[in-house]
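Subject: design request, 123 residues
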């Protein structure tokens, strides 16, 4: 049983940065891969990034590689997504997720989901 709560979303101008945070509560946090997904209006949910309990990472689309960085602090039960050089196309609701592995997460499967935090990038 894992509860996930995201924070850090908001309005930012194109070219700016935001840092999303997700705090996890429950048992066996260190055994979960964590990830971030996003969903823009009218579009399907998109895989953004994932990180294993030991810190191995996988990123999604080329558009986020080099701009977004996922990290986790197991001692604080938190996962972060640092987003730099934000573009209008990054506007979406960003969801924190927990799953059994980073490859499974990359495939779009997770066991637990947060409610999401809205990121709006103005052009």
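Subject: RE: design request

Done. Sequence follows.
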């Amino acid at each position: 049983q894992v509860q996930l709560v995201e924070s850090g979303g908001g309005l930012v101008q194109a070219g700016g940065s935001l840092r999303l945070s997700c705090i996890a509560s429950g048992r066996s946090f260190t055994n979960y891969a964590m990830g971030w997904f996003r969903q823009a209006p009218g579009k399907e949910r998109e895989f953004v990034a994932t990180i294993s309990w030991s810190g191995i990472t996988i990123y999604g689309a080329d558009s986020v590689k080099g701009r977004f960085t996922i990290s986790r602090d197991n001692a604080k039960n938190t996962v972060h997504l640092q987003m730099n050089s934000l573009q209008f196309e990054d506007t979406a609701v960003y969801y924190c997720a927990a799953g059994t592995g980073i490859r499974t997460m990359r495939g779009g499967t997770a066991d637990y989901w947060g409610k999401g935090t809205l990121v709006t990038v103005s052009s």
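The mean pLDDT is 94.
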